[in-house]
Amino acid sequence: MFRRNYGYAAARAYAIYQDQDFLDLAVISWTSARRFTLSQEQIASGTTYVKEFNLSTSCQGATMAGGTYYITGPTDPIISNMATGFFLVVSALLAEVTSNQTYLDAAVESANFVQSHLLTPSGDVKQYILSDLNSSCTTSPRVDAPSTGIFVEGLVTLAYITRNVSTEALLRRTIFAVATGTLWQGLDGIISTTDTGGHYIVWALTALYERNKTASDLREYIKEYIGVQYNAVIEHATSGGSNIYGSPWTGPPSTSFSSDNQTVAISSLLSAIQLVNDQASSKSSDNPTSSAVPSSSASTSPLPTKNSTGVIVGSVVGGLAVVVIIIVGILLLRRKHRRKGDGPFCCGQLFPTNAYTIHGYINSCFFGDISGASYEPGETC
Predict the structure, then answer these.
(1) 218, exposed or middle or buried, with CB in 10 Å at 0-12, 13-18, 19+?
(2) Cα–Cα distance for residue pair 192/182, rounded to 1 Å
(3) Dist CA 33 CA 30 (whole Å)
(4) CA–CA dist 56, 344 (Å, integer)
(5) Helix axis angle, 101-117 relative to 20-34, nearest 10°?
(6) Which terminus of the chain has fewer CB atoms gathered within 10 Å of its CB, N or C?
(7) Which residues contact 182 (CB under 8 A, 6 or more apart)?
(8) What's the confidence (pLDDT) of residue 331?
(9) pLDDT the model gives residue 51
(10) Could you tell me how many helices (H) and strands (E) the chain has, helices first?
């Protein structure tokens, strides 16, 4: 699947800055992932050139087209929602910024795959399905926050582009599952998962909040939900003015630095910034996301106040700016390196092996689009 999903970051960066380099990077990522996404033609033949087994062409009467493989090895049959969901999100973002029908068709196909094979009757999303003919369409019994959150984010963009009635209804259904589910949040409404996956839920609802600018019960509910997570992060996941955040957000605070915990906390803090002094339009909305979501049993803490903005900015922007500068610098260096024809650009070349906070991400080859497919054939680090 997308390793660190730089295709997503590049697509979002292009939408904001209109820099062609970001669009090029997003397209490269999408093209790499497309190789490991089942097409209608491959389903018709029952084979795909990236796998060494016969495919299950349909499961429960629905085509397997649109599923993306989690691992690129030729014998691994797992099609996961993490891989398919990220491909859905990037396809939808590219469709939005380019108006290219190819990306829109890919997004629709991915969404249909998840709905047909991984979505549960309650609206949660299973982790994977096995695609080989011998596995008889076996699916994972487990649902989790990352799988559901990524799917919701993809649906948000897809519904915004197409205004398709069926997609809008599916989006409302999955949002209800997110808002009322107890698998990753307690009765107080705080995301309590310990697998650092709760931020996918926050990202998804933030994407919906950003796109639906008109007043609605649903938008107000999402505002409250994001506010609850923000307050949990600053009140329970850290203490004493420390910039070290723990997981889960229900506490207790951590005194040990964890790059994963920091990244997850930043997601919540950044999502809350836009809530401050946000004035929703009083007009009724024709947006599909304006329908009300039934209230969950979760309580809602006070939303961030104006003074909270300083806390968020002070604790996040400095560190985030460093990370962004490093990432953008590496992206541009890698692009320049390839243009010069100097061979593969390896992430670990930039950092010594004893680098502390960033090296863990870079050394795993941040730029690999899909696990096991970081380089062109024949290239090695």
Answers:
(1) buried
(2) 9
(3) 5
(4) 36
(5) 50
(6) C
(7) none
(8) 55
(9) 96
(10) 12, 4
Long-range contacts from 22-27, C-beta under 8 angstroms, 24+ separation = 23/97, 23/98, 24/335, 25/331, 25/335, 26/90, 26/93, 26/94, 27/94
Q: Which of the residue ranges 26-40, 247-261, 334-348, 359-373 would you say has the lowest mean pLDDT?
A: 359-373
Q: Looking at residues 330-356, what average pLDDT do you find?
A: 45
Closest to 21 (Cα-Cα) out of 3, 9, 4, 32: 9
Residues facing 62 on adjacent strands = 59
Mapped to the 3 state alphabet, what secondary structure does 167-182 carry? Answer: HHHHHHHHHHHHHHCC
Band (pLDDT 50/70/90 cuts) for residue 47 is very high
Structure tokens at 85: 């969901």
Distance CA 358, CA 349 (A): 13
Q: Which amino acid is at 214?
A: T
Q: What is the pTM of this model?
A: 0.74
Backbone φ and ψ for 69, nearest 5 degrees, come out as -75, 140
Is 71 a residue whose pLDDT tops 50?
yes
Where does residue 295 fall: left (phi above 0), alpha (psi -120 to 50 degrees), or beta otherwise?
beta
The three-state secondary structure class of 139 is strand
For residue 253, say if its preceding peptide bond is cis, omega within 30 degrees of 0. Answer: no
Cβ distance 118 to 129 under 8 Å? yes
Q: Which of the 8 DSSP states describes residue 132?
A: B
Q: Which residues contact 201 (CB under 8 A, 6 or more apart)?
A: 145, 148, 149, 152, 178, 184, 191
Give the HSE-up count for residue 258: Cα atoms under 13 Å, Cβ half-sphere: 17
